[in-house]
Specification:
197 residues, Tetracycline Repressor, domain 2, elongated, 77% helix, mainly alpha
């Protein structure tokens, strides 16, 4: 990683807990500079504004998280287990950092204001990755989609929609974790071929 990239990554990593603690509106560039251990002048050399910094942080978080999601889905093993692990990676990378903050709602709304395109692109990639994993599992005979009447893309979109609903109630180890486990159990039961039940 180049020195400039390392500096930007350090600033963005330092900014994340500051945003989680104070929310977007109350966080100042001075707060972020202090957390990063740099001067405000150095911070402004890297990012022109708090909005630019927030967008860059969103882009970085989405990029790193989606790389992890893809890696998890590319592993071997049961497709439902891999999907559950991919969803967990998605939540841990993009929802958990703010999920337990009292400023979560504001931060998710801010993200949609400044980085909606990044968020939509990541969601589209997630659906494509889930659809690909389900399609491959169907080809191998690991799952059966006949009973559900759905296509891999339909199921992938349903999983993503369930995640969207669950994320608004996210608390690590809380009811949303239970909800995702329930969703995975239902998928497992619905998609397991009769010959393997």
């Amino acid at each position: 990683m180049k020195n400039e990239d390392r500096k930007s990554a350090h600033i963005l990593d330092s900014a994340l807990p500051v945003f989680a603690r104070y929310g977007f509106q109350k966080t100042t560039m001075a707060d972020i500079a202090r957390a990063a251990g740099i001067s405000r002048a150095s911070l402004y050399l890297a990012f022109n504004s708090k909005e630019e910094l927030f967008r860059a942080g969103s882009a970085r978080a989405h990029r790193l998280t989606m790389a992890e999601v893809e890696a998890v889905l590319n592993r071997t093993g049961d497709v439902i287990d891999r999907i559950a692990a991919a969803i967990s990676a998605f939540q841990e990378g993009l929802i958990a950092p703010f999920g337990n903050s009292e400023n979560a709602k504001e931060l998710f709304e801010t993200n949609m204001e400044f980085a909606e395109d990044i968020t939509i692109a990541a969601r589209s990639k997630l659906i494509a990755l889930l659809s690909g994993a389900l399609g491959e599992a169907r080809e191998r005979g690991e799952i059966d989609l006949v009973a559900s009447g759905g296509r891999p893309a339909d199921l992938a979109a349903l999983i993503a929609a369930a995640m969207d609903g669950i994320k608004h109630n996210f608390r690590a180890g809380g009811p949303s974790d239970d909800s995702m486990r329930l969703l995975m159990r239902i998928l497992q039961l619905a998609l397991t071929p009769e010959s393997r039940r």
